[in-house]
């Protein structure tokens, strides 16, 4: 199993397959795709080699992300490649949901186990104000279809934004009363490009956590391999609440994931200073070379990000790497 010098073990790969996106979320790509967005994405063969390499090193879960991963027409093939790699037990997708209504059955058939969909508001006008798209209804229908077609785990992601969606909280709670999804609230993270927006909109998750506990929500004991999200359940609700608080103390201690960009660079942290190029091994279908390189690089992973001090590393916006 891949591990670093602090004993953290990495069984989870987050793979970005494109930096392109069709949304303009105000905290991520307010002006749309930058003109230098790279387009020479990892090919399916390179992805096959990459995933086989990680599986050989003990990875059992792959999350496909972006940019918007569903902009790649070969997404169902990529899901299938991950799913058919010996050792990979779980294939997950993070998407803005724009194609779910049309494609969820293809994703399921290809072997998708888990789905995370971004939904920053349940009010169509607020949703459009945040994402630049008037497509909330379609996305919610796609989520319904995902639940109906037997995707094991469905989670919804909301970035908490002081000036936008905090007033929508009650709608999220009403939704999970009868719907068995985990609705996850993510603290806005500062990136290279969103400093002013961050200063105006960051909300710490603590007050939500305190409110949940005061209203009878109970912390769910996390399974051994769980990530840094804190989950809460309540007897009156079919769904759960998740909280992701990257600014909280010790957030990085439970880090269990590594990231690879759509250009084949290994990122040891979402906010690392740079990506480490392993693409030449992937293009050459060199699993042994890739696995030696990754093991050596991972040993040098630092203890934590320095977001609290405002250091955002090379990450200009999260569409570059997938969050
Ligand atoms: N386009 C897909 C989507 O939106 O789900 C996948 C990529 S997106 C970068 C992955 C996740 O990162 C989304 O849930 C998004 O809301 C979140 N995200 C993006 N920028 C963020 C930021 N600055 N702080 C916190 N979360 C952010
Ligand atoms: Fe696109 Fe996802 Fe970024 Fe929104 S959060 S702009 S959907 S990559």
TrEMBL record:
Entry keyword annotation includes Signal: no
Reactions catalysed: GTP + AH2 + S-adenosyl-L-methionine = (8S)-3',8-cyclo-7,8-dihydroguanosine 5'-triphosphate + 5'-deoxyadenosine + L-methionine + A + H(+)
Coiled-coil portions: none
Domain Radical SAM core: 5-224
Enzyme class per UniProt: lyase
A Pfam family: Mob_synth_C
Gene Ontology biological-process annotations: Mo-molybdopterin cofactor biosynthetic process
Keyword Lyase recorded: yes
Names of required cofactors: [4Fe-4S] cluster
Domain of life assignment: Bacteria
Record-level Gene Ontology MF annotations: 4 iron, 4 sulfur cluster binding; cyclic pyranopterin monophosphate synthase activity; GTP 3',8'-cyclase activity; GTP binding; metal ion binding
E.C. designation(s): 4.1.99.22
This protein's UniProt keywords: 4Fe-4S, GTP-binding, Iron, Iron-sulfur, Lyase, Metal-binding, Molybdenum cofactor biosynthesis, Nucleotide-binding, S-adenosyl-L-methionine
InterPro entries for this protein: Aldolase_TIM, Elp3/MiaA/NifB-like_rSAM, MoaA, MoaA-like, MoaA_NifB_PqqE_Fe-S-bd_CS, MoaA_twitch, MoCo_biosynth_MoaA/MoaC, rSAM
Official protein name in the record: GTP 3',8-cyclase
Organism: Paraglaciecola mesophila KMM 241
